[in-house]
Design a protein that fits this description.
single chain, mainly alpha, 178 residues
Length: 178
């Protein structure tokens, strides 16, 4: 029974959420963004609010973006069988809910919502999402190359050569004795 794309996306995201490597990577990204303070967050936010800003931004964007991207990758599988074009189109579409999160978090952090900035945010978010998706698709490809495609069956034991294909070794020994 084939699961639908949303179930698949949720299952994959849930598995990623259980991985300590996911949490380590997310923690490192949050720490890096908190310390470096890109997009004027270093100047406009103190350390605590900057950490809260980047933690909420990274976590919300990662999980929503992952669900959306996996959903569109699976939904478009039959229409676009080639993996990379499907990944690019999925990224462009998945960047829409991620952009909505960026607008909301920015609105909460800076006490303003700027719908006029939505197009610029969408382009920026699409580029960042594309980098993340390319990394994940590349890692999936790398892992699938390293994983054996199937377990090889055990090698059959060599068979003794017999004069007759249905003769047993005992019968052959008995018939060859004087």
């Amino acid at each position: 029974m084939k699961s639908n794309p949303l179930q698949f996306a949720l299952r994959e995201t849930q598995a990623a959420g259980r991985s300590r490597y996911t949490w380590i990577a997310l923690g490192l990204v949050i720490a890096l963004l908190t310390v470096s303070g890109p997009y004027d967050t270093f100047e406009s936010l103190g350390l605590g609010p900057r950490f809260a800003y980047w933690a909420s931004m990274v976590l919300a964007c990662y999980f929503v973006g992952r669900v959306a991207t996996r959903f569109f990758l699976e939904s478009l599988r039959d229409a676009i069988p080639q993996r990379w074009p499907r990944a690019v189109i999925s990224t462009v579409v998945a960047a829409l809910p991620v952009t909505a999160i960026v607008i909301m978090v920015n609105g909460l952090a800076h006490d303003r919502l700027a719908p006029s900035d939505a197009l610029t945010l969408w382009v920026d978010t699409t580029l960042v999402t594309l980098v993340v998706v390319i990394a994940f698709v590349s890692m999936d490809d790398f892992v699938s190359l390293r994983r054996p495609s199937s377990v090889a069956p055990p090698a059959a034991a060599p068979r003794a050569h017999h004069r007759s294909s249905n003769a047993s070794p005992c019968r052959n020994a008995a018939s060859s004795s004087p």
